[in-house]
UniProtKB/TrEMBL annotation:
InterPro entries, per the entry: Metal_Hydrolase
SUPFAM superfamilies: Metallo-dependent hydrolases
Protein name in the entry: Amidohydrolase-related domain-containing protein
Top-rank taxon: Bacteria
UniProt-listed Gene3D superfamilies: Metal-dependent hydrolases (3.20.20.140)
């Protein structure tokens, strides 16, 4: 079984995307043998009111029965936008969202913002995972209208320290993964899972030893990144780095446990 932990539909204002709607994403999933995808809306990053994007996502998933069994929707919530608490409740209780995605760089707040901490605690109390991306697109060739800031793994640790018993998905590990000893220990014992889409997972075998085999899962960051690299990082692991059981955990087992599937 193969589960993609990190996919999107929608548009990016500064980049032409392919495979960015449900029919096209479904075709890519079929081509590469992916059974289920965790999906959120790129539009939610740029809409002033992110809830409109969550409603669009929900409507599209509900439009076909096949989509409802293949896609796990995550809501984009902006905790500094008026009405975010209602957005959270509506997304979880009415729209059937199974997780939330935060985009602090684009929405203009820090992870230690009191409203952000409150939101993460609300998600924790519902056993709902919180997804964070180290970067959305490579800032180097991006439009001057886009943000230039990118995160390292250390940049997400303030929220993990503030709410250590929440569930976190950290995706597109494109930049430094170096943590000090204290934060490494915290991440290893926390409910954290990281995807394989990011460019900085060139030595996944070593990272499995550092953080644990249960801390990683397959992810594509599609359609922003190509679909197959995240899977190749798993399949190319040598026998002394990961046996078949570990590879199956990375393909789907870890995420199934993490999402209670």
């Amino acid at each position: 079984m193969l589960i993609d932990s990190n996919a999107y539909i929608g548009h990016w204002p500064f980049l032409q995307l392919k495979y960015n709607n449900f029919p096209a994403l479904s075709e890519r999933m079929q081509e590469f043998g992916t059974d289920i995808s965790v999906v959120s809306s790129l539009n939610g990053i740029f809409y002033k009111n992110t809830q409109f994007a969550n409603e669009e996502l929900s409507e599209e998933i509900r439009s076909k029965k096949a989509y409802q069994s293949r896609f796990i929707p995550f809501a984009v919530i902006n905790p500094i936008y008026n009405g975010w608490r209602e957005d959270f409740e509506t997304s979880v209780n009415k729209l059937g969202m199974k997780g939330i995605r935060l985009h602090p760089i684009y929405h203009g707040y820090e992870l230690d913002n009191p409203a952000c901490i409150e939101l993460v605690k609300m998600a924790r109390d519902r056993d709902i995972p919180v997804a964070l991306s180290l970067r959305m697109v490579d800032s180097r060739p991006s439009s001057w209208l886009d943000v230039e800031k990118e995160w390292t793994l250390a940049n997400v640790m303030p929220i993990v320290r503030a709410v250590p018993d929440a569930k976190y998905m950290i995706v597109n590990l494109a930049n430094s993964l170096v943590l000090d000893e204290k934060d490494t220990a915290l991440l290893k014992k926390s409910k954290v899972i990281m995807d394989t889409s990011g460019r900085n997972l060139l030595d996944l075998g070593s990272l499995l030893k550092t953080f644990g085999t249960d801390k990683f899962c397959f992810g594509t960051h599609s359609p922003v990144l190509d679909y197959c690299t995240g899977l190749l990082r798993i399949e190319s692991l040598r026998n002394d780095e990961a046996n078949e059981q570990t590879k199956e955990m990375l393909r789907s087992g870890n995420l199934r446990s993490f999402l209670n599937l």
